[in-house]
Design brief:
The chain is mainly α. The chain is built from 1 helix and 2 strands; from the N terminus they run αββ. A two-stranded antiparallel sheet has the order 1-2.
Length: 65
């Protein structure tokens, strides 16, 4: 079964323009940048980075001189 489609023109009542499309993409992008939200949830900040040596124990900071 074939389905036809013909977009409406302004004279037929079309009210959306290309600017509406740009705005539809910009608003969620702006909100994500403002709030720190990213796809997949909030950005996670890890307080304790994974150890980078074989024992798994946290590295000891050297004593100041």
């Amino acid at each position: 079964m074939l389905i036809g489609y013909k977009a409406r023109g302004r004279e037929e009542g079309k009210k959306l323009t290309w600017r509406d499309g740009v705005e539809a993409l910009w608003i969620p992008t702006r909100l994500r940048l403002r709030s720190g939200d990213w796809p997949g949830g909030r950005r996670q900040i890890h307080a304790d980075p994974a150890p980078d040596h074989a024992s798994g124990a946290p590295l000891r900071q050297p004593d100041p001189p």
